[in-house]
Amino acid sequence: MRRRMRRTPWVFSLWPGLPQLWFEGDLTGLAVAVVFAIFLQVALAASFLWPAWMGSAARSGVWISVIGLWLSVSGRRLAQRIWSTETPAELDGMALFIDAQDQYLRGNWYQAELALQRLLNDNPTDIEAQLLLSTLYRRVGRREDCWECLQALATFPGATYWRWEIDQEAQRLEQWDQERDQQDNSERSGGPMSDAA
Asked: Residue 77: which residues within 8 A CB-CB, separation 6 or more?
C-alpha cells in the first residue's frame, strides 16, 4: 500500500485538512478544512468586526478552539514531517509514483512509463506501480506487456488485497481483445464484399 502521509510542501500543512483534501482526495480533510474556516471566521468577526457580538469569554473560547484545532491537525502533521521516520529512498519512491500518476493523467505515456520503470527497478514488487504500468500498457495498446504485468502481479505477496483491481484490469484487456477481434473479423468479411460491389 502507498504510505499514509505523502511528502507535501510544508505550507499546505498550515491549513488543517488541506493536505488530506488536496493530495489524497479525502473528504474528511474537506470537513476539517471547512470547520476550521468557520471557527476562524467567527473568531475574526467577533474580535475585529463586531466585538460587541460576543462576550470576551466566548471570544476567548472561539480563539482557543481555533488554536486547538490547528494544533491537533496541522501541528501534528508538521511534527510528523519534522520527525518523520521515512527514509529518503521511500520519499523518492512516493514522489516518483506521484509523478508517474501525474504524467499518466496528462496522457504523457512515455514519461509515465519511465517513472514507473525507475520505481519498479528500485522495488520490483510495488503492486500499485505494477498495476498502473499494466493500465498504461493496455491504454497504449501493448497487450503482451500488459498481460506480463498482470501475471507478475498475481505472484506478489500482497496481491490478494488488490485482487479486484487486478481482475478488473484483466477483464478490460479481455474486452479490448474481443473488440479488436470483432473489428478484424468485420474488416475481413467487409473487405471482399466491398471489392465485389
From this structure: 5, 13, 19
> SS3 for 53?
helix
The answer to whether 13 touches 78, Cβ cutoff 8 Å, is yes
The whole-angstrom separation of Cα 112 and Cα 153 is 19
pTM of the model: 0.51
Q: What are the backbone dihedrals phi and psi of residue 165, each rounded to the nearest 5 degrees, phi first?
A: -65, -40
In whole angstroms, give the CA distance from residue 93 to residue 80.
Answer: 18
Rounded Cα distance between 61 and 4, Å, is 33
Cβ neighbors of 59 (< 8 A, separation 6 or more) are: 43, 46, 47, 51
pLDDT tens string 50-71: 888 888 899 999 999 999 888 8
> Who's near 161: CB < 8 A, 6+ residues apart?
1, 127
Residue-wise over 101-130: b if at least 16 C-beta within 10 A, else e?
bebbeeeeeeebbebbeebbeeeeebbbbb
